[in-house]
Amino acid sequence: MRMRRKTWIWPRYWHTSCAVDTAPDTAGLDHNEIKTQILLAAGKLGSSTDCSIPRLLLQREKGRCRNDSFSPGECSRMVSHFLPNYLGYTDSYAQKAFCGIYSQDGRIFMSACQDQNIRLYDCHSGRFKKFKTVKARDVGWSVLDVAFTPDRGQFLYSSWSDYIHMCNIYGDSDTHTALDLSPSNRRFAVFSITVSSDSREVLGGANDGCLYVFDREQNTRTLRIDAHEDDVNAVAFADASSHILFSGGDDALCKVWDRRTLREDNPQTVGVLAGHQDGVTFIDSKNDARYLISNSKDQTIKLWDIRRFSSHEAQEASRRAVTQQNWDYRWQQVPKRALRKQSLPGDSSLMTYRGHGVLHTLIRCRFSPAFSTGQQYIYTGCCSGKVIVYDLLTGMIVKKLTNHKACVRDVSWHPYEEKIVSSSWDGFLRLWEYRQAEYYDDDLHDAPGEALEPRAKRSTRATRTGTPSSL
After folding, report:
1. d(CA 163, CA 142)
2. Residues facing 190 on adjacent strands
3. Which of 79, 301, 306, 439 is the most exposed place for a label (fewest CB within 10 A)?
4. Within its chain, how far is the Cα of 330 from the centroid?
5. How far apart are alpha carbons 221 and 183 in whole angstroms?
C-alpha cells in the first residue's frame, strides 16, 4: 500500500483565532456607485426583500421576467443560495501548497507546491482530474506565483531566481523558457506575476522594491521601476486593456501606474492608496479599471476606488505605522494592538473587512466571479486554516469553509461554477462545492423502493470526500 508522506505542521502554523468585526463601517461604501453596481449585478436593486427561489420561479411563470428568462442579476441572486459548503475532492502533497488558480475559462486548474512540482488538472464538464505534472526549474525555497497566458497554451512561474520561467501546457514534452530580468540584487525573488491581455508583456513584483516588465516579443526586460520602499508583494492589471497597473508592497501602500507613460528614468505614479498599517500581501482587481482589494499583514482587506487617491499626509501616516511594527508575521502571533479597530488619518479606502488572519505567508484574497455571483463577495485564505467569504456590501462573513490544519495561502473560485479550491500549507488541495444539507424522503430514491446509496471513491493520493464545512 502506497502511503502519503506526512507533512509536519509546526506549532506556529496551528489554528489561530481571528478578530471578527461584528459591526463593519459601511459609510464610505454606501455613498459610492459600487453599491448600485453590485446590487444590480446581484439582482437585488429595487427588488423585494423576498429573495427565495420559489418566488423567482413564480415571477418567471407569471411572465414578469424580461424575455421570459432570468436576467444575469437574477441568476446571481439564485446562486447566492448555493454557496460552496461541502468538501468534495482532496489531493495531497508531500510539502506545502503555495499557489492554486483556475484558468480564465475554468477548464484548467494549476497548483504549485514547495516540492517544485506544478500540477495541472482537467476541469472540463465538472471533472477535476490531474493530467500533467511539470518539474519547475531554478526553484529556491518554493514556486512563489503562477499565471496562465491569455490563450491558456502556456503558464509562467516565479521563485527565488533571476528568471521568470514559461512552459507549455500541452504536448508530449515540456519546453521551458527562461525570461531574464537581470536584477542587481544577488538574492532576488519575484513574489507576484501577471501577463498582459495580448500576452506580450509579463509584469512582476520583486523583493528589491521594483516592478519588472518583460517584453516577450523582444525577449528582453524593457522596464525596471523603483516602485516601493520595500518588497513588492503583489501586482495586477486593472482591466483587459492592460494600460493601468496596480502594485502593493511591504511599505503598506498600493500604487497605481499608467503603462503608457511609465519611464524607467523618471517613474511617476498615477496615484497612491494609503490606509493599511502593515505590508500588503496581495492585490486583486475587479477588472473594471476602478476598484481593487488588498490583503494586508494588519489583518484586514481593504476595498479601494482609484478615483479616490490618498493625500500626502495619509501616505506618511501609513509609513509611520509600518515603522512602528516590531513583530514578524512569519513566526509571531498578532499583537493585541494590531487587532484594534482603528483607522489611520486620511484612510481613503471604501471599506475594511476583518475576520481572517494573515500570518506566516503572503495570503491571497479575490473578488468572487462576475458571471455566477455578480462579484457580490470577497473571499480569502486564512492563517487559521479556513476559507473566509465576506459579503462585499455589508462586510459580514457569510461562509467559512473549515478543514485545513495549517494556513490557507491561496483560494480560487471557478469562474462559472460554484466551486472553490483552497491551497494550504498542510499539504492539501481541497475543492469545495455545494451540497444540499437536508433532504426529503423522495429526494433519496431513484425509484419507489430503491434507495440511493452514495459511494466515495478513495485513493491514497486523491480522494472524493464527504465532509461538510462548519460555520
Report:
1. 14
2. 206
3. 439
4. 20
5. 10
In which residue are the cell numbers 465538472 written? 126
Q: Which secondary structure element, helix H or strand E, spans residue 322, and what is its range?
A: helix 312-323
Alpha-carbon span 266 to 26, nearest angstrom: 38
| E strand or H helix at 321 | helix 312-323
CB atoms within 10 A of CB 342: 9
Question: Is 452 a residue whose pLDDT tops 70?
Answer: no
For residue 140, what is the DSSP state?
S
Q: Residue 39 and residue 49: Cα distance in Å, rounded?
A: 12
Strands 467-468 and 445-447: unpaired
- Which neighbouring-strand residues pair with 422? 411, 430
Residue 332 is placed in which grid cell?
509571531
What residue type is 355 in one-letter code?
G
Question: Using CA atoms, how far apart are residues 216 and 112, in angstroms rounded to an integer?
Answer: 23
3-state secondary structure of 100: strand
- Tell me if 346 sits within 8 A of 274, measured CB to CB: yes
Q: How far is 382 from 360, CA to CA, in rounded Å?
A: 10
Distance between CA atoms of residues 38 and 76, nearest Å: 10
From residue 55, give the alpha-carbon distance in Å to each of 61, 76, 97, 158, 410: 10, 15, 43, 49, 37
Q: Are 369 and 417 in contact (CB under 8 A)?
A: no
Cα 412 to chain centroid, rounded: 6
Cβ contact 90:431 at 8 Å = yes
